[in-house]
Structure formats: structure tokens, C-alpha cells
Amino acid sequence: MFPEIEEKNITLLVTSLERYHETLPKLVESFSSSQGIYTSTNRSCERIRDSLKENRINHGNLFFVDTVSKPSGLDVEDTEKCVYVDDPRNLVNLSIKVSGLVSEDISFLIFDSLSGLLLYNGERNVEKFIHSFCSEIRSWNLKGVLLSVKDSFKPDVLTTISGFCDQTIEVK
Length: 172
Fold this sequence. Notes:
Blueprint: E1 10-15, H1 17-30, E2 35-40, H2 45-54, E3 62-66, E4 82-84, H3 91-101, E5 106-112, H4 114-117, H5 123-139, E6 143-149, H6 155-164, E7 167-171
Parallel strand pairs: 1-6, 1-7, 2-3, 2-5, 3-4, 5-6
Helix pairs in contact: 5-6
């Protein structure tokens, strides 16, 4: 579904809310032969795994960064396959958690989604974080896909963020 996502680059993938839930499994499936990191700002690790199982998509190759469970009050501990962020407003800690999962076996990172960051952070803080985070993805030599729900940002903010990426793809 996503042949235009090339090796070793960063893609901003913009989708409508209506297409969001069908786009995610297809995106994960397109990376199913490689190990990667799935960072979620809007659903727990368990919900994502359940959704992938329902869609018969292998998730054994994924390591998760969950920014939802702990702030929701769930008593969860880091595991080998899932690490939890205490506070999604602490973007430095989020970056550190992702960094801790990067290894030579990891080839891609999916960030789901930029829109979720807006629940806890202002647009300018999200812009600054994404600028820095894109630099980190490049330094790790990973393929990165940053998801955003269309119309969740002001057009100028999305334009700024797209400038940090190598390409922008709009799912129609």
C-alpha cells in the first residue's frame, strides 16, 4: 500500500479520521519483514496489539512505546517489548524511551500520531519536538513514518512539520 515510502527517510503520512483505522494496519503490515518501534500517543500497547491481531497482522517484530497507559492510571511496568511513558507532556522522556529501544536490528519507526501529542502539548512545542525527533531518526539511520490526522493541526503548523520530513503523503 505504501511503495512510495523509501528506505532511510522520514515520511509524514496524513490521513483523514475516517481512513485512520484502516491505514494503520496496512502501514504496519508493509513493514512486517523488519523489526521496528511503534510509538503511540493515542492508544495503549494492548489495544494496538489487539487491533493488529484482529487484522491478522504479525506484531512480533514490533517494540512499543506507550504514552497512554500510565497517564490513564493503569499500573503497568516496562517489558522487553513495551515501554511506558509516565507523562506525555514530557517530550524529552518520550525521546529517551524511544532511544532506549533503538538497536542495529531496528530498521523503522512509526509515530502514531502527531495529532495525539496535541492533547498534552502546544503546537509550537510539538513543532520543536518533531524537529529534534526527526534529527534523531536520521542519526539512528531508521526509516520513519509520522502519522497525522488531517485537520488536527493548523495548516501552517503542518507545513512546518512537513518541512522536517523528506516527503509528505496524503492518504485519500
